[in-house]
Design a protein that fits this description.
The protein is mostly helical. The chain is 73% helix and 1% strand. The protein has a two-stranded antiparallel sheet.
């Protein structure tokens, strides 16, 4: 069985083989399409924490080592290579979400590099093509994100033959149903996010709902559940992993809210205060608005959704601190982590499975990027 340290490398290998296998289809269409595929390949292989594949593997590891698994039970319904392949496919969904999210947020950089839409905007400018370069860049990036989503399905279902690879297994129905639900949830969460921004819904409940579906579900909860389904988990274990994953997913996004407002660009790879300039109605912002006097709240509202000077960014961050919002978000992260660790410690699975899941819990709650 792969260790936590080995899973990212195994996922990268699957992705590299997949991109190699799909390159011929792109080349047959046009060099323009090949360049789009290259941009996606470089985006996916050029960074990322590979957390989602790690949670798929952790869920499978819990299921196959569960004490309530009958002694007469057959071998796990799927092999570890399929678990890795499913994790790799979720990385393509992640790529789709990030590429589209960067367009929605008008972000210039991701992981310290130009975002995909800025990359193709620059290509338009350098080629002196007709029309608006910014519109062209966004248009191409939308299609690159769509390609990532389509390829995620191709990869998870084994529709693209990879040279020298064994014939891929079919997903168990339970895992396939979760896969389908997860894709719908992440797109629904994206829609909720942009709607909250334009409708100025400042409630904490609305911000939490976005977190649950845009991030928590497909980052932790669903990957854990899918991994458990791949391991033929009991309903009780699957339900426990769902609870654990939801709490950890919320902790992950709350940490993301903090990093998006006060994170170090050298570590996050994104501009300072990116979420504030994007006007995101995060839990952090909702708490700051609720915890400030009307005049201060109006000041913060006036700073959201536009480019900020260094002095304006300092003012916004001061409000986040003085309102108690920063401290409250840190407390909520700790609460979610503590609850998840308590439930992990009670799982009747192997000690290795518990330890690996607990290590992942600490990693996502205390990350710096």
């Amino acid at each position: 069985m792969l260790s936590q340290q080995q899973v990212p490398g195994a996922v990268a290998e699957v992705l590299q083989d997949f991109f190699c296998a799909t390159s011929t289809a792109l080349d047959e269409i046009s060099p323009v399409v090949t360049r789009a595929g290259t941009a996606l390949e470089e985006f996916v292989l050029g960074g990322g924490k590979r957390l989602r594949p790690l949670f798929v593997h952790a869920g499978w590891q819990c299921a196959v080592s569960a004490a309530d698994r009958p002694a007469t039970a057959p071998a796990p319904p799927v092999s570890e290579p399929l678990v890795v392949r499913v994790g790799a496919a979720i990385e393509l969904i992640q790529a789709c979400a990030l590429i589209h999210d960067d367009i929605l947020d008008r972000s210039d950089t991701r992981r310290g590099n130009p975002t995909v839409h800025r990359r193709f905007e620059a290509e338009h400018d350098e080629s002196a093509w007709a029309g608006d370069s910014a519109h062209h860049g966004s248009s191409v990036a939308i299609l690159v994100g769509d390609l990532a989503l389509a390829w995620a399905d191709d990869l998870v279902h084994g529709h693209v033959p990879v040279p020298d690879a064994p014939v891929p297994a079919v997903l168990p129905p339970a895992a396939g149903a979760l896969w389908s639900r997860m894709r719908t949830e992440v797109l629904g969460g994206q829609l909720l996010d942009i709607t909250n921004e334009v409708s100025a819904d400042e409630s904490v409940d609305a911000a939490y709902r976005v977190m649950e579906y845009k991030t928590a579900a497909y980052t932790v909860a669903r990957p854990l559940e899918i991994g458990a389904a791949l391991g033929d988990s009991s309903p009780e274990l699957s339900a426990a992993l769902r609870r654990i994953g939801t709490g950890l997913g919320l902790a992950f996004q709350l940490r993301d809210d903090l990093l998006g407002a006060v994170g170090d660009p050298e570590q996050t790879g994104k501009p300072s205060g990116d979420d504030l300039t994007a006007g995101k109605r995060t839990v952090l912002v909702a708490l700051a608005l609720a915890g400030s006097d009307p005049a201060t709240a109006d000041t913060l509202r006036g700073l959201l959704g536009r480019n900020l000077s260094a002095a304006e960014l300092a003012t916004a961050r001061g409000i986040l601190t003085e309102s108690g919002a920063l401290a409250e978000v840190e407390r909520q992260i700790d609460d979610h982590l503590t609850a998840a660790l308590a439930e992990i410690s009670g799982l009747d699975v192997s000690a290795t499975a518990r330890d690996d899941l607990a290590a992942l819990a600490h990693r996502i709650a205390h990350r710096q990027a």
